[in-house]
Amino acid sequence: MRIGITCYPTYGGSGVVATELGIELAAKGHEIHFISYSQPFRLSGRDDGIFYHEVPVSSYPLFEFPPYDLALASRMAEVAEFNSLDLLHVHYAIPHSVSALLARQMLAARGRHLPFVTTLHGTDITLVGLDRSYLPITRHAIEQSDGVTSISSYLRDETNERFEISRHIEVIPNFVNCDVYTPFRDDATRREARKRFAKPDEALLMHLSNFRPVKRVADVIKVFARIAGEMPAQLILVGDGPDRSSVEWLAHDLGIHQRIHFLGKQERVNELLPQADLLLMPSELESFGLAALEAMACKVPAIATRVGGVPELIDHGDTGLLYAVGDTEAMARGAIDLLSDPVRLEEMRNTARQTAQKRFCASLVVPRYVEFYKQVLEQQ
Predict the structure, then answer these.
(1) Cβ–Cβ contacts within 10 Å for residue 245, how many?
(2) Cα separations (Å) of 114 from 42, 87, 206?
(3) 281 within a domain of the structure (yes/no)
(4) Sheet holding 170-171, edge to edge
(5) Pure H helices in 127-255
(6) Which of 41, 140, 184, 288 is surrounded by the most beta carbons within 10 Å?
(7) Spatial separation of the C-alpha atoms in residues 54 and 196, rounded to whole Å
(8) Rounded to whole angstroms, how far apart are CA atoms 84 and 3?
(9) Following CA atoms 310, 313, 315, 320 in sequence, which dihedral angle do they give, to the nearest 10 degrees?
(10) Is residue 246 domain-shared with residue 140, that is, in the same domain?
(11) Residues pairing with 91 in the sheet
């Protein structure tokens, strides 16, 4: 198939999933065309079967805000027509599904039908989409999509309830390439890699996010401060965003800044994650929790919050530990107890990897997207 993919190319879960999906589809022989305002950050190199089309946006003085959604719709229609695309797959409803709908209408006037699939990722439904200024158009775009998927049952149910949508929404979970996200092949290699961040007797914790308020990165610092007060430990923070400055100051005020490594945005997180003992993910809300899945594939359990779609991914006590939002004391105690019990930690590490392999590997999930595309095309 020839598939157009549109996503936000920045550092966030929806863009990561969309990019990885395109890479996996191309590896299976499909022709993938990414359409966005910049190249997705995980789309490195020139993989066979992958093409990138930039969306130029005019900065005419009359426009206080550049009309990206209109430029995107126009570019979608052009790319679809010039490359004979079979369908568009847009990730994150706003404004991508609206632009795809407009592109479909533009091509229909020229006698060509271009179906599109919308994948809902989270805040496009739970936060932005519920804004009264966006709710009607978001609902309309979802209802007009030729196919809709969500990354968790939680998000599907939220969409149906909050938007009063009765149409079918296919649940296809996020996935991870289990051949790329892997633990170290032996303990000696792992010890050598960890030397950059921690001494042999130190625990190594990690957090990965876009540093937005919903990620509660300050809670990561509070949890780590409690852990570091009881045992030798280091913390790696991967990512960047609006809360970074306040988090840096909090670490300084708590006197633990010298034990925290701010790495900023990293492309090859698969090389960093296997070094950690635990991942900290104290989010206010996660519709799935992709960072936790990538960690699990690397044999790294997560200390996370019992919110949204996270319980669909993490089994409390088996593949990680779940707590109430904001309960940093309980999270820290859970982490300390786990780090103090090497046998239990190793069992949880192994179970986390096995769960990722059995339920969330790209080799299992990506074919479900291909089958869904076929169903959409057959209904046209």
Answers:
(1) 10
(2) 27, 6, 43
(3) yes
(4) 50-54, 31-36, 2-6, 87-91, 116-120, 147-150, 170-171
(5) 135-144, 153-162, 187-194, 217-228, 244-253
(6) 288
(7) 38
(8) 9
(9) -80
(10) no
(11) 119
Contact 142, 325 (CB under 8 A): no
> Quick one: which of 5, 90, 74 has its CA closest to 39?
5
| Residue span of the structural domain in which 56 resides | 2-175+362-378
The three-state secondary structure class of 63 is: coil
232: its two tokens: 């030798």
Checking DSSP bridges between strand 2-6 and strand 31-36, what pairing results, if any? Answer: parallel
SS3 category, 341 = coil
DSSP state of 128: S
Alpha-carbon distance of 304 to 301, in angstroms, equals 9
Separation between Cα atoms, residue 300 and residue 339, nearest integer Å: 12
> DSSP alpha helices (H): ranges in 42-171?
68-83, 93-108, 123-126, 135-144, 153-162
Tokens at 203, concatenated: 């625990």
- The CATH number covering residue 242 comes to 3.40.50.2000
Query: Is residue 224 a part of any domain in this protein?
Result: yes
pLDDT in the model for residue 337: 97
| Number of domains forming the structure of the chain | 2
Within 8 A by CB and 6+ apart from 144, the residues are 101
**Quick one: which H or E segment has residue 335?**
helix 328-339
Q: Computed from CA positions of residues 270, 271, 276, 280, in that sequence, does the dihedral angle turn out positive or negative?
A: negative
Q: How many CB atoms lie within 10 A of CB 248?
A: 15
- Cβ atoms 88, 116 nearer than 8 A: yes
Answer whether residue 180 is part of any domain: no
Helix (H) or strand (E) holding 290: helix 290-297
Q: What is the mean pLDDT of each run of 10 residues along the chain (380 residues)?
A: 92 82 94 92 75 88 83 96 97 91 95 95 69 82 95 93 88 95 94 94 96 95 97 96 95 96 91 97 94 97 97 97 98 98 97 97 96 95
Q: 0.85 exceeded by the pTM?
A: yes
How far apart CA 130 and CA 96 sit, in angstroms, is 16
Residue 318 lies in a domain: yes
Strand residues in the chain grouped as ranges (E)? 2-6, 31-36, 50-54, 87-91, 116-120, 147-150, 170-171, 203-208, 233-238, 260-264, 278-281, 302-305, 320-323
